[in-house]
Each structure stands twice: as C-alpha cells, then as structure tokens.
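Customer escalation, tier 2.

The customer says the design service returned an amino acid string that "doesn't look like it belongs to this structure." They asked us to rerun it and document both sides in this ticket. The original structure tokens are below, unchanged.
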C-alpha cells in the first residue's frame, strides 16, 4: 500500500515535469507508464528481497550489493549485547545470605542461538552472572554461538557439559553419557572436552556438569583425579542441581513461584540453590522460540529471584572463592 502510493506520486511528478518541459500529451502518457513500471518494479524487487531475507535493510542491500548471509550474521552479532561486566562485591554480604546459580545447560552450535543470546543479555543486564554448560563436541570455532560466548565472557562462567551429550546403549538399555562409564573412558572424554573448550574459548573450565546430571562412580573418580574443582550433578555434591524450569520426564514446566519454592527447600538445607535451565525449555513443540514462554518462565524468574530478600546470584567459582570449596 505504502509503496503503491509512492509509485503513483513519483509517476505523476514525472508527468508534470514532462508537461512543464512541453513534450506533448502522447509522450507524457508514455513517460507516465514507463515511470510507473520502473518505479513499481523497483519496489516489487525490494518487497521480494525483504520477504526473502526477513529484514528490509538486509534484503535490499543484499540484492543490490550482493551481501552474503555470513556477513549478515556478523552484523547481527554486532548488535548483541554489551553485557554488564561489573563484578559483584560479596565482601559486604551478610553471613546469613542465600545464593543461587542460574545454570544454562546444553549450549551448542546453532541450537537456539538467538535464545541463548537473549538469555545471556537479559541475565547480565539484570546483574546475574550465569553458568553456561557447553557441549564440547557440539561447538566449533567462529560459529555464532562461539562468537557470542567469546565476546561476552565476563557475563558467565563456562562449564563443561559432557563431551557429546549423546546417550549410550548397553545390553539394549539406554544410559546418559557419563552414567556408566569406566574410569579410563571417562578420563579420556573429560580430557578431550576440556581441550576443545580451551582451544575455542581459551578457558580452563573448573566445573563439570554431566548430561542428565548422571555420573558413574568411576567417572566421579576420574573427575577428582582430573583438574575439575566442581561437579554439578545429582551425585551428592554441594553444587548439585536443585529446581529445574522444565522437567523432561514429566514434561512439566514450572513457573517462577514454583522454582522459588524449590530454592526455599534447598536453602533450608544449605545456602546454595542451583537452578537448571535449557534454552529449549522456551520453544514451541516444533522447536521455534516461544517468546511468551521465554518471558513468563525465564525473564520473570530472573526478576523474581532478584526480589528475594537477602538472596544473591553467584557462580560455582565465585562461591568456592568465598567458602574455599
Ligand atoms: Zn544437558
């Protein structure tokens, strides 16, 4: 509608100019149609480009100047997030304070990249430094996710989340990646994963999160002999996972009040609550991002956590610095 009106106005303007220039009616009408067709084609091309690329300012430019998709992704990344990197000063926090860890698991290449980006942005602008569990074999150098993580390191503590996160089948039964591993196999997987994360992100991770929070005894021994300082699983560690936003075996999603009540339970035992969250918790069944779910169950959870009196966000590393874990 908008483009149609502009086309008509421009064409009339050209005809008026033609009349003023005294080139005669027949020629003027021809000029009108020619102008209408030219301007109309230009806007049609623009509209097609816009529909194809999703963003009008990318669409036209990419057709006129041949911009590549990769370049557009770069521009996309420029728009991210200058995260809030202020370090929280815990020295003035009182002895009876409660702490919570926002643990984001399953971070990997192209897997809900936009939602991971939004999660890191929202949490850091609210002053919440998260723990991001990365699956080493599912990230590559310079992918959008890797660039996002590399550019915003101060917004989170990176943890190693398995090696490939794939389930294994033994004797016809399925297990989580680290659930039944022998010592040597576990050691090798930990080493490979740690090397990948160190190559891509130049970090020496100190926290290990086993997929599905399940860890064999032998794997636990391998972790202790390795240089991991913290394990966050369900194996009885101080850093074990507490409430979760979405429970996979019951397919239930929990609202902020329920997660907070889970934290109250944790806080009745110790002063730390580890909340497990996945980017895919906030999607439609087909996999597309569900903005309503994201706002209701993630963004509102962060805000609710901030309102809890005498409760503070923390990472495993920061917690262990205070309490010498
Ligand atoms: Zn996982």
């Amino acid at each position: 509608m908008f483009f149609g009106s502009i086309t008509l106005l421009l064409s009339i303007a050209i005809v008026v100019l033609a009349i003023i220039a005294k080139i005669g009616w027949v020629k003027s009408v021809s000029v009108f149609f020619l102008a209408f067709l030219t301007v109309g084609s230009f806007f049609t091309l623009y509209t097609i480009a816009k529909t194809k690329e999703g963003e009008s300012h990318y669409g036209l430019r990419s057709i006129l100047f041949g911009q590549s998709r990769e370049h557009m992704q770069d521009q996309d990344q420029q728009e991210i997030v200058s995260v809030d990197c202020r370090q929280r000063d815990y020295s003035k926090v009182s002895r009876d304070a409660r702490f919570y860890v926002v643990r984001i698991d399953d971070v990997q290449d192209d897997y809900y990249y936009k939602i991971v980006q939004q999660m890191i942005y929202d949490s850091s602008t609210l002053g919440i430094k998260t723990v991001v569990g990365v699956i080493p074999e599912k990230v590559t150098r310079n992918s959008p996710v890797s660039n996002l993580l590399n550019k915003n390191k101060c917004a989170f503590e990176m943890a190693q989340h398995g090696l490939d996160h794939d389930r294994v089948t033994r004797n016809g039964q399925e297990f989580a990646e680290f659930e039944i591993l022998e010592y040597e196999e576990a050691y090798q997987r930990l080493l490979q994963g740690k090397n990948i994360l160190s190559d891509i992100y130049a970090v020496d991770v100190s926290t290990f999160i086993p997929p599905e929070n399940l860890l064999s005894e032998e794997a636990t021994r391998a972790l202790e002999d390795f240089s991991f300082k913290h394990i966050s699983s369900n194996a009885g560690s101080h850093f074990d996972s507490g409430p979760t936003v979405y429970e996979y075996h019951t397919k239930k999603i929990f609202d902020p009040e329920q997660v907070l009540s889970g934290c109250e339970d944790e806080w009745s035992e110790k002063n730390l609550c580890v909340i497990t969250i996945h980017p895919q918790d906030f999607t439609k069944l087909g996999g597309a991002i569900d903005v309503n779910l994201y706002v209701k169950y993630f963004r509102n959870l962060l805000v609710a956590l901030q309102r809890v009196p005498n409760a503070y966000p923390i990472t495993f590393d920061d917690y262990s610095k205070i309490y010498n874990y």
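Tier 2 assessment: The sequence is consistent with the input. The CA atoms of residues 97 and 310 lie 5 Å apart. Confidence is low (pLDDT under 50) at residues 48-79. Sent an explanation to the customer and offered a walkthrough call.
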